[in-house]
Q: What sequence folds into this?
């Protein structure tokens, strides 16, 4: 019987051994490195969706401005378009009927943290608890669990991203910020900004203010005139590839 001895001193063999060691080490350190880039396993902040479809999403963050929420909802209903309301958990607990109405009329309920604390100051466990507490509240009211999370203050880091992913949430930012919370942002300014920056897969950020109530029907009409179909954030995410650049 003849045996063939394989030398480990050849350059190709050494190269293969080195590659094998590096791959195994990467898998031990971070299994996500073994997956393709852009995998759903890798949490990213979503600023827009790359899609050939003429679709955009309106988001409204709600932890204050309650007196303007019914008016915004009515404008959406009259225009036959949905929005994604990113609600604070404490706000939802205090206003369950408004939350139920959002769901009934076809709007999406998203998560905006419990009481608008700075996510970067909460740590991993604190963020997980803050997000999950809000999810449980919204689900208790609507029987629907939120799938998207808008961090308060638009604040996040890798810890916040990991916490959102641990609760199976997509962290959503925005493509166009109306800056409607600023008193100097007139309805005309907001309408013009959204119209000028409108793009396929864009996400518009708003809040419940008197200026937003006035601007919203004009924003909707301006986007419709440009041929855009308005959908919820979750619907938009299914239309293409999430992107981290606005």
A:
């Amino acid at each position: 019987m003849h045996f063939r001895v394989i030398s480990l001193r050849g350059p190709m063999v050494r190269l293969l051994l080195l590659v094998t060691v590096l791959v195994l080490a990467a898998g031990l350190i971070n299994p996500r490195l073994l997956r393709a880039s852009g995998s759903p396993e890798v949490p990213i902040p979503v600023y827009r969706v790359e899609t050939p479809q003429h679709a955009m999403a309106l988001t409204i963050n709600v932890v204050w401005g309650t007196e303007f929420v019914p008016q915004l909802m009515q404008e959406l209903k009259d225009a036959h378009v949905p929005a994604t309301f990113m609600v604070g958990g404490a706000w939802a607990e205090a206003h369950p009927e408004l939350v139920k109405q959002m769901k009934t009329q076809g709007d999406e309920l998203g998560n905006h943290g419990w009481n608008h604390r700075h996510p970067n100051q909460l740590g991993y466990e604190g963020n997980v608890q803050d997000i999950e507490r809000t999810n449980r509240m919204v689900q208790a009211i609507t029987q629907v669990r939120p799938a998207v999370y808008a961090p308060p203050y638009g604040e996040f880091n890798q810890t916040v991203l990991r916490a959102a992913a641990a609760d199976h949430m997509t962290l959503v930012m925005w493509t166009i910020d109306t800056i409607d919370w600023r008193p100097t942002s007139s309805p005309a300014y907001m309408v013009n900004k959204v119209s000028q920056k409108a793009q396929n897969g864009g996400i518009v950020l708003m809040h419940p203010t008197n200026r937003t109530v006035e601007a919203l029907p004009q924003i909707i009409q301006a986007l419709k005139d440009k041929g855009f179909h308005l959908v919820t954030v979750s619907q938009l995410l299914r239309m293409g590839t999430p992107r981290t650049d606005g």
Remarks:
- Residues 123-142 form the longest helix (20 residues).
- The chain has nine helices and ten strands.
- The domain at 48-243 is CATH 3.20.20.370 (TIM Barrel).
